[in-house]
């Protein structure tokens, strides 16, 4: 009580180890966790909220309210010892699994449009919109349908507009 009268703060409490037993010290502001464990826990909470909101959007957008299946409550233990409740619909969890499989369409390796040789990162994009290897990158090597002549004429015409002076009156 004497400290409150003088305006001094109370001495700090003894250091508390992180509740996740990672070996670092925690603080009361971070629920007795070290900064890294607290950051990991908040990231997991944000991801869970994001997943729940995206599932809610899928449910609202794709299924009717009459045919809605009962929700399943899942309890997830976090390392901090607290538990979170997540409400997940059985139908949406199956639908999201199917969506993930369809989204993982594997794109084949990049190949030259003429000789079908793998080009990877060294491929050359032509103005005709195709990808070519070092041998076929020039327009005369792959029978390019792009009209370079008219493209150049248009570029010159835009860069050099016709300047026409006004007529002068004779005195």
From TrEMBL:
One annotated GO molecular function: DNA binding
Protein name: Zinc finger A20 and AN1 domain-containing stress-associated protein 8
Record key words, sorted: Metal-binding, Zinc, Zinc-finger
One Pfam family cited in the UniProt record for this chain: zf-AN1
PANTHER family (alphabetical): AN1-TYPE ZINC FINGER PROTEIN, ZINC FINGER A20 AND AN1 DOMAIN-CONTAINING STRESS-ASSOCIATED PROTEIN 2
Organism placement in taxonomy: Eukaryota, Viridiplantae, Streptophyta, Embryophyta, Tracheophyta
PROSITE patterns the UniProt entry points to: ZF_A20 (PS51036), ZF_AN1 (PS51039)
Superkingdom to which the source organism belongs: Eukaryota
Limits of the A20-type domain: 12-46
Start and end residues of each AN1-type domain: 106-152
Function: May be involved in environmental stress response.
């Amino acid at each position: 009580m004497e400290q409150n009268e003088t305006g001094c703060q109370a001495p700090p409490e003894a250091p508390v180890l992180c509740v996740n037993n990672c070996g670092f010290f925690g603080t009361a502001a971070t629920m007795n966790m070290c900064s890294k464990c607290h950051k990991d826990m908040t990231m997991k909470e944000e991801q869970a909220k994001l997943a729940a909101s995206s599932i809610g959007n899928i449910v609202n957008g794709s299924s009717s309210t009459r045919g809605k299946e009962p929700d399943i409550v899942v309890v997830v233990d976090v390392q901090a010892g607290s538990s979170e409740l997540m409400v997940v619909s059985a139908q949406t969890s199956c639908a999201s699994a199917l969506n993930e499989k369809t989204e993982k369409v594997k794109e084949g390796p990049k190949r030259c449009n003429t000789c079908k040789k793998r080009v990877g990162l060294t491929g050359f994009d032509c103005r005709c919109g195709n990808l070519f290897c070092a041998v076929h990158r020039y327009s005369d090597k792959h029978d390019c349908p792009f009209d370079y002549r008219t493209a150049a004429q248009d570029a010159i015409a835009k860069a050099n507009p016709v300047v026409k002076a006004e007529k002068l009156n004779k005195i």
